[in-house]
Protein: Fatty acid desaturase
Organism: Hymenobacter lutimineralis
Amino acid sequence: MQVSVASSPALPTSPARRLRPEALGYKGVVAASLIIGAWASLLVFLLVFYRPDWQTPWPYLLVLAQTHLYTGLFITAHDAMHGVVSPHRRLNDALGLLTAGLFAFNWFPRMLPKHHAHHRHVATPDDPDYHDARHPGFVPWFIRFAWNYVTVWQVLLMAATYNVLKLFFPAEQVIAFWMIPAVLATLQLFYFGTYLPHRGEHAPDNPHKSRSQLRQHVWAFVSCYFFGYHYEHHDQPFLPWWRLWQAKR
C-alpha cells in the first residue's frame, strides 16, 4: 500500500539516462579507501590533536565534515550491497563489512537481505524501509526505520566503545566528533535516501515508486553522495555512487 502526501502534487520524474555497466577495476576500492582514510584521519586529528574552541564556528563545521565522511562510510557499504565496490566478491564484501561496522557497528550480513528486499518491494508493506501506511510523517517513519535496523548489540557496542574512548580522550570530544556525527549521518541518510524519495511525491505510473532531487550535482554530492538521485539508483543499481550523476537528466 502506498501513501501519497496529500499536500504535494505528484512530481514527474524524467527517465534516467541509460548507462552501460563499466568494468570497476580498482575505482571503487580507491573511492572506498579515500573515504575510510579521510574518516579515520579526521577522527584521529579531532580526538588526539584538536582542542576545540566552542565559541568559534570551526568545531561545528568539523562536526559537519565528519558527518559527511560518516555518510560516505554508509554509502560505501551500500555500494558493496550491490557488488559495485570491487569485482572481487571477497574484497567487495570485506569493504562492506568494514564500512558498515565503522558506522555505529552496523552488521553488513544483516543489512544485505533487508536492502535487497527494499529494492524488490519498494514502497509496499514488504519493504523494510517503508512506513507502516498509517504514520508517514518524518518522525514516526524514522522511528520505525531505526527499529528495523538498530540492534541491542549495536547500542551495547557503542556504549562500550564510548566508555573506552573517554578513558583516553576528552568525553566532550568523543561525543561531538564520534557519536554526534553518526547520529546526524543516520538522519541525513534517512531524509535524503528514504523519506524524500519514497514519501509518495511521484506519478502513479512511476516504475520505481521513487522521486529524485533536482539536477544539481554539487548539492547532490554534498547532501548525500548523489543518493538523492534515487530514481536513477533504483533504475540502475549497478551504478556506484560516483557514477549516479551521469544518469541524471
Notes: The chain is about 60% helix and 0% strand.
